[in-house]
Amino acid sequence: MIIAMNQTKIIAKILYYICFILSGGYLLTLVYSGLCLATGFSVSPYKDGKFLHINYPFTEQPFLNIENNYPYIVFSFLTVLISYGIFFWLSARVFKVFFQSTLFTKENITQLKRFYRYNIFIPLPLVVIASFFVEVESMIWGLVLIHFMLGIFCLFLANIFKQGATFAKRTRPIYIICPS
User: Fold this and answer.
1) Any idea what the Cα angle at residue 81 is, between residues 139 and 108, rounded to 5°?
2) Is 97 in contact with 108 (CB distance < 8 Å)?
């Protein structure tokens, strides 16, 4: 049991850092792209202005290639960056739950709730709204289903954690002890 929990904590910590870095990458890309698009800094149109290169800072090297039309920029580019930035940030917070010394706490349940609410209630409305303005590929509907299933799974975990917290209140806190 101790070895399994130690393994869980190590994996959770690794995934926490990966998700945290991915979240930072998406959100920094969002900020940089937004500034470039708003100011024209480091943006190069190509193919008769139908597309844009957002270049690496202070270079002419393309960093991102996007269509040069407002609906695409808003719904297929900026919305994707912010929604996955938030998704990976929430994922990092969920993985952080699993390397805490006390699992069944109100704060940990809150992190699980945020994750399942986001995954159950945000992707579908975003994609439905986007579908009025841009073409939504069939693969995107599959991603919406995957997010929904992740949300449901995390809902189950949150309910298990609630029961664990209730049990812990009646007895004593439950600690996962792993040798360092």
Assistant:
1) 95
2) yes
Q: Which two tokens stand for residue 28?
A: 């920094």
Q: What is the DSSP letter of 175?
A: B
Contact 134, 71 (CB under 8 A): yes
Beta strands in the chain (DSSP E): 43-46, 51-55, 62-67
Single-letter amino acid code for the residue at 20: F
pLDDT in tens, 141-170: 999 999 999 999 999 999 999 999 888 777
The CA distance from 109 to 119, in Å, is: 15
Report the amino acid identity of residue 93: R
| Cα-to-chain-centroid distance, residue 147 | 10
Say what the pLDDT of residue 2 is.
63
